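Hey,
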Amino acid sequence: MNAVARRAAQAVFFALSVVLILLVAGSEFVQRPVGLAYLALWVALAVATAVFRRPGAPSTYDRSQIVWRSVLGIFGFLAILVLGPWEYTHMTGPLPRDGLLAWIGLAMFALGVAINAWAMATLRSLYTVRLSVQADHRLVTSGPYRRVRHPGYSGFLLALPGMGLALGSLAMLAFTAVILAWLVERIGKEEAMLVEQFGDEYRAYQRRSKRLIPFLY
């Protein structure tokens, strides 16, 4: 699939995702400030993803991730586009709705989207879905990659619980826990791949940077 067709397909998917959220949650979703802000941030994430992220080349590293990606894709679809919005407008607990906690969640979501977009814009064509080394691959250590080796994952792990708190969704918070377990495993494979590709250059980068959280981890 060429770039134009891929972006068109992504645009159709994200447009349909907005429609699905509104069908599941009802018009009340966008009549409440938190719901409207959530939808705007979801669209911002969709635009950044469509512009910057590429599928990437197949690889032996990626083959070990295919089942994980398929299962988590289905779970994520249900949690983010169906269960979370439904919980927000159809349930009153156990998490509070539309209060301080929801706005803290939206702030986390917004910051996560910004970090993720920054990471994708920095890597450009090297930021891929598949776990693989591209033909023109090079080690990038600028921008958000100066202190953190996986800022895209950092942004994702900030945005996901933010989405759950914003909508008061237990399903989305549970999905965050599953994603965290997967990313720990994926990061290990990704770093092994990059050590194999870049050798001592990547090992030196590992020594002067953290995986996900600047100065901590």
